[in-house]
Amino acid sequence: MRRLAATGLMVAVGLGGCATLTRGTRDEIAILSEPAGASVTSSVGASCAATPCSLVVARDATFTVTVAKPGFASQTVPVATRIAGEGAAMASENIATAGLGIVVDAATGAALEHVPNPVSVTLVSLAPVAPGAPRRTRRRTG
Predict the structure, then answer these.
(1) Scanning 11, 89, 104, 134, which has its CA 20 to 30 A from the CA of 73?
(2) Which parts of the sequence belong to the PEGA domain (predicted)?
């Protein structure tokens, strides 16, 4: 009976997955822009009205973020995933559960993190420079 209980406990812990339990299956991505106040949309449906803001997405999602503001050229940034240092450490701990936790963490994406995070963009103004506008020059003082 004890052996059955111990096996059941090991399977339950393994099915939970260490990273799945401690990191979760969703990740928060910070979005920053210069100038602030740009709208953000993503290829996975997450969006926010004005930067700075953050998007919450599945840890295993790869996607693009588009940052836009009237009067500025919009920018699209790809966001990828990689195994997080913390996630990798937890995955190695899963060996104690006969590898079951590794399978769960890999399936849920809990051992992953997004890069870049934060997503930071500098928007370029679309305002044309007026022809004949005076150029600002520095005067040497001496």
Answers:
(1) 134
(2) 28-79
Secondary structure (DSSP) of the chain: -HHHHHHHHHHHHHHH-HHHHHH-SEEEEEEEEESS--EEEETTS-EESSSSEEEEEETT--EEEEEE-TTEE-EEEEEEEEE-HHHHHHHHHGGGGTTHHHHHHHHHTTTEEEESSSEEEEPEE-PPPPTTPPPP-PPP--
As a residue count, the chain comes to 142
- Averaged confidence pLDDT in the chain: 76
Mean pLDDT of 85-92: 53
Contact 29, 57 (CB under 8 A): yes
Query: Cis peptide leading into 35, omega within 30 of 0?
Result: yes
pTM: 0.65
